[in-house]
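Lecture 7 notes: from sequence to structure.

We start with a single chain of 324 residues. Read the sequence below before looking at the structure.
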Amino acid sequence: MARSPGPGARAESPQRPRVVLVTRKTGLETLLENQGTRGQAEFFLKTRGQSIDSFEQSDLRFRSNLAGVQQAIPADQRRVHVERERVDRFLFAPDDIVLVVGPDGLVPNTAKYLNGQLVIGVNPDPGQYDGVLCRHTPAEIPALLDFAETVLATGGQVPADAAYRIEQRAMAVAERDDGLKLYALNEVFVGHLSHQSARYRLRLADGRREERQSSSGLICATGTGATGWARSIVEQRALDIVLPAPGERALAWFVREPFPSVSTGTTLDHGRLGEGERLVLFSEMGEGGVVFADGIESDRLDFLSGQVVEVGLAERCLNLVVPP
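Now the structure, written as tokens:
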């Protein structure tokens, strides 16, 4: 006769959601890859007035906390470990629970390849990372996984007395006229790969205003990305524009260094986009025209003469598990 699980026991089930653990290489790992050996890496740093000690200490802290995260995942829970370099080729399941362990920037690097999955950000080194998006500690993992499984089991409903909540953060999308898309949690960049002069025609969301431009490119930022590149532009140019909040369904766009000439204008240089509104850009670049998201230039769309790109709010968003 089968025995029933005791009170509080977890029932094993093949249907339990999978945990996808996302990390990136540490500074020490990257250094050793580039230099080949520890001795060569130490020599390389010493000739530049640096020490390998800080790299090793940071690596040790990360590995210690990563081990704590892995040990906190129940033994019967399906799991897979994916490094950032493989995220763009990894097939996420709709009910995956995504554990991002690393700096805040690893969340947007991952979010652009997700479609509604729950994301839990874990800060492995609070002395080094701010923890704006990766707010949790390894000790919280059991409670966080319980919360995520409860939400998934109830079709996305968060219990009123839950210890956590889900913060939905708006994302941007760039769609080329052949249907290819790029998603961004921070911002979309449209311009020249070298960040030199980009030539294109810009049509505003109202469809009535259009301008040929030569600039250092255009960025379209979400509320999450509004604290970075976008804020710097606003402050440098003293622009009168309200940047969107992290959860707001709105985007802010800016043309970088527009150049006036007999054939190019500078009157359309910034604005906001709401639900259903899109900027339309028509490329006039024979080479080097690109679209990329969240600073990942290696994962890009070509944007060459004759091609058209529309930029606006994405239909998907980041579902980030945060404290109440």
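The domain at 171-315 is CATH 2.60.200.30 (Tumour Suppressor Smad4). Keep this in mind for problem set 3.
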